[in-house]
Write a structure and sequence with these properties.
mainly alpha
Length: about 50
């Protein structure tokens, strides 16, 4: 059976089309990583508030 794993964020960000889109839009890899970390923290905080 063929088990394909989901690509990591790093692998996705290394894809040539993603690199081209980010360059076109003026988004750096660091900026996107910071945004995703902030979203992750906010989602965790929301889940914790809802569980309380």
């Amino acid at each position: 059976m063929d088990h394909q794993k989901d690509p990591t964020l790093s692998e996705i960000l290394d894809e040539p089309i993603i690199v081209a889109l980010m360059k076109r839009d003026g988004i750096s890899r660091e900026c996107l990583s910071q945004l995703l970390e902030r979203v992750k923290r906010n989602l965790r905080a929301r889940e914790e508030r809802m569980a309380a």
